[in-house]
């Protein structure tokens, strides 16, 4: 029996990535349906590639985060709108209101630290990055600096982080 797996003609990794991104859509859809209020201590860190087609963020944020950024949905966000392809939300950065549009295909990580849940997505060839995400310190996120998006990559504390990597041959 060989250790080399045969090349699959079915793109399992892509199918699983899309399904996991749909989990993010379902969670955000639940929040939208519930009036845009997060229950209990739940709050979300969402990391996304800013250069993916369909991402619409203000120029001042694109200048600060030319590759990837992490936003926090916690206390102060508004106009959450979830569609089949992504979401839009209003956030404040340094007392400056901003409207962001993020397709699910741009998301690289989703974390809910209140329950130690996280999903990390494999970057596609178009989305590949050479740096790590900086956390955008949007107003109202009390623990944004502490997490810095690092909670996604760590599983040493027993958190429920799901990372899918089928080891595609290049």
Essential attributes:
single chain, 170 residues, alpha+beta, SH3 type barrels, six-stranded mixed sheet, three-stranded antiparallel sheet, 3 helices, disordered C terminus
Helix count, DSSP H or I runs of 4 or more residues: 3
How many discrete structural domains? 1
Q: What global shape is seen?
A: globular
Q: Which spans have pLDDT < 50 for at least 5 consecutive residues? A: 125-132, 141-170
Strand order of the largest sheet: 8-2-1-6-7-9
Report what the structure shows.
The protein is α+β, with helices and mostly antiparallel strands and 170 residues long. It has one domain (12-163): Roll (SH3 type barrels). Helices cover 19% and strands 29% of the residues. It is built from 3 helices and 9 strands; from the N terminus they run αβαβββββββαβ. The protein has helices at residues 12-33, 59-64, 144-147; strands at 44-49, 68-73, 77-82, 86-93, 96-103, 107-112, 117-120, 134-135, 160-163. The strands form 2 sheets. Strands 8-2-1-6-7-9 form a 6-stranded mixed β-sheet. Strands 3-4-5 form a 3-stranded antiparallel β-sheet. The longest helix is centred in the N-terminal third of the chain and has 22 residues, at 12-33. The chain is globular.
């Amino acid at each position: 029996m060989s250790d080399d797996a045969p090349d699959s003609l079915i793109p399992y990794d892509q199918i699983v990535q899309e399904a996991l991104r749909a989990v993010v859509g379902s969670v955000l859809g639940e929040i939208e349906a519930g009036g845009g209020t997060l229950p209990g201590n739940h709050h979300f860190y969402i990391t996304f590639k800013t250069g993916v087609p369909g991402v619409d963020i203000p120029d001042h944020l694109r200048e600060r985060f030319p590759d990837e950024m992490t936003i926090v949905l916690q206390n102060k966000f508004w106009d959450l709108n979830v569609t089949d392809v992504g979401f839009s939300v209003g956030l404040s950065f340094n007392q400056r209101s901003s409207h962001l549009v993020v397709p699910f295909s741009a998301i690289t990580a989703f974390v809910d630290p209140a329950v130690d849940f996280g999903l990390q997505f494999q970057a596609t060839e178009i989305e590949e990055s050479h740096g790590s995400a900086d956390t955008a310190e949007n107003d109202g996120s009390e623990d944004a600096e502490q997490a810095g998006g690092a909670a996604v990559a760590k599983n040493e504390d027993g958190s429920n982080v799901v990372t899918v990597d089928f080891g595609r041959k290049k």
